[in-house]
Amino acid sequence: MSEYMEIERRFIISERSVRPWRDCEYQSSITQHYLDSALFTNRENQLIYAGNLMLIEMNDEEKSLFEKTGGGTSRIRFTPESVFLTLKGKRTHSAAVELEWELDRGLGENIIGSKSHPSISKIRYHWKGKDGMVWEVDEFEEGLEGLILAEIELPSIEHEPNLPEWLGEEITGLHQWSNVSLAMNGIE
C-alpha cells in the first residue's frame, strides 16, 4: 500500500456516560482550517498557494498524485506541537490519497491570515484497542460541542479491527460526517 493512501473507518460514539478513550497514551487539542483547494497549484514541483506563496518542494510521486487528485480537501491542522498541511483526494468509501507535509508555524499562520476559513476544534484522544491498534477519538468543541467521533487507520481495506463496544453507527464514507462538511455545514 502506498504511503500516500489513507484507509480508515469512522464511527459516531453514542455511549457518552463512560469515556474509556480518555484513559489514553496521548491527547492533543487540534484546530483545522479548510482551504479552497482550487488555490493550490504546481509550479516546477513547487506547491504554490494563492498564486504566489511557495509552500513546499514536492517529489515526483507527490507531484503525480497532486495532479491526479484535484478537487479534494485541503486543510491546515494546528496542534500545540506542530502544523501540517494536508491535501486529500476524493474518498472512495474508506480510502483516499493523502499528501501531508509539516509546515513552519509562521507559514501556516500566514496562510490562514486574517481570512475566515471554515474550521473545527477538537480534543483528540489516542486510545489503544485490545488488538493493539490505535483509535483516534475526537471530542468536538465550539459549535460542534457534544459530538464525538472515532476513527481507526487500517493497513489495508480488508483488515478487520477489533471494534470497541462503545462505538455507535458506522459513518465511513458518509460525506456529511467528514470534518470538512462539519466545518462548513455543522451537523445536518
Task: Provide structural commentary.
This protein is mostly beta strands and 188 residues long. It has a single domain (5-185), classed as Hypothetical Protein Pfu-838710-001. It has helices spanning 60-68, 105-112, 179-185; strands at 5-13, 26-35, 40-43, 46-49, 53-57, 73-78, 83-88, 95-103, 119-128, 134-140, 148-153, 167-170. Strand 10 and strand 11 (148-153) form a beta hairpin. It is globular and about 50 Å long. 20% of the residues are buried. The model has no long low-confidence stretch (mean pLDDT 90).
Task: Please give the structural blueprint.
Blueprint: E1 5-13, E2 26-35, E3 40-43, E4 46-49, E5 53-57, H1 60-68, E6 73-78, E7 83-88, E8 95-103, H2 105-112, E9 119-128, E10 134-140, E11 148-153, E12 167-170, H3 179-185
Antiparallel strand pairs: 1-8, 1-11, 1-12, 2-6, 2-9, 3-4, 4-5, 6-7, 7-8, 9-10, 10-11
Strand order of the largest sheet: 1-8-7-6-2-9-10-11
CATH level-4 homologous superfamily? Hypothetical Protein Pfu-838710-001
Question: Could you give a short account of the major beta sheet?
Answer: 8 strands, antiparallel, barrel
CATH architecture: Beta Barrel
List low-pLDDT spans: none
Please give the share of residues in helix. 10-25%
CATH class: Mainly Beta
Structural Rg? 17 Å
Structural class: mainly beta
